Amino acid sequence: MAPGLSSPGRRFRAYTVKHLDDLTTRAGLSAAERLAVRAVATVLPFRTNEYVVERLIDWDAAPDDPIYRLVFPQSDMLPEADIREIGGLLARNAPEMEVRAAAHAVRTRLNPHPAGQLAFNIPALADEPLPGVQHKYPETVLVFPRQGQTCHAYCTYCFRWAQFVDEPDLKMATDDMGRVTDYLRQHPEVTSVLITGGDPMIMGEAVLRRYIEPLLDPALEQIESIRIGTKSLGYWPQRFVSDPDAEDTLRLFGEVVAAGKNLAIMAHFSHPRELESSVVGEAVRRISSAGGVIRTQAPLIRSINDDPAIWAGMWRTQMRMGMVPYYMFVERDTGPQGYFAVPLLQAHEIFRDAYASVSGLCRTVRGPSMSATPGKVCIDGVVEVAGEKAFALHMIQARNPAIVGKPFFARFDPGAIWLSDLEPAFASRFPFDSTPEELPGLWAPEVLASMS
Fold first, then answer.
1. Mean of per-residue pLDDT scores for the chain
2. What is the pLDDT of residue 156?
3. pTM, full prediction
4. Residues near 337 by Cβ (< 8 Å), separated by ≥ 6?
5. Please, what are the domains in the chain?
């Protein structure tokens, strides 16, 4: 690595597909391997930046370096037949429309919007859909700012990959905070707003303010917390330290706190190396001084962080820095899930061993958690009941609040990687099983009243 090449004062520089061949050459890939990587990048998005390339990747270990694998497409992430078809089109310089059509066909098979994001989560205002907003759980609304639907760098495992490809029909976004706040006023059960993406911290302070400031209106006193989902602390911590509007951004954070709201920065750290730079420590200190609380989360990813020592080390470091370990997720059923997924049994064992080796201050973390259609399903372990092995699970969060926290069981399956692989044990159905028409609107006030 060359740590001097990207000092905290450097301006942001992105690397995109046009830089991919040079960067993969640097990793030692052959011409055939580089073509296969280009084929993957035709289907799935690629973007990184100078900080990641020069400060985080160990090029002596590439292409096996975990940070390299975290941001660079891998030649075997997609089925071999798809790689061969698209690679052949690229090799003969096929017309762009032909390449796009082939990429689109592959994307449609990758479940671009998992967990019912479009089918069940889009709310309505005055009987009209409210684009760029999701309302899955009664107390929480997600807002997707139109200008925040990219990132400083893309993770190869990202479940929101559909936000970043050139297919407008797959994107979620809004720039109409007037309609959002109208909706919030009509739904007093909403106490938390999560601004997500993409990465909202890709936006400058003036644009970010357009989405945050309306939420500070005294008429929305119900809003107790504003969350910002971001990978910027790992991929571009300069955003809070030396970017031209870093100080303005921190002042905006302070305004949220002064308005009596909790400001939660939902930070994604996938590997300990993302925590090592001194600029990360300074960014964390500044956010904390502004009154923000940083909660950390990431999915469990095969070949990148599938080791309990990695997780225990991250949680300890985050706790020392003043951050709060929050979630270990299971890789979602979208994109190249099969490439990155860890079996649920192994996921539980990794979480258990890491959890057992840290102090109580780190045990704020929850997981391994599947963010599935019915809600967040936590794997508590393997039990034996009446001579039969089973997974013990519970709902951390659910569309139906009545089932939150209730334990249930699934037949033991050591090869299962997702909720859809599991079958109920000791019951005919899971507690969340319902017909699709029962799912929309569970967070509506009249439904909530009937559950109380």
1. 90
2. 86
3. 0.90
4. 111, 331, 417, 418
5. 3-107 (no CATH), 124-451 (3.20.20.70)
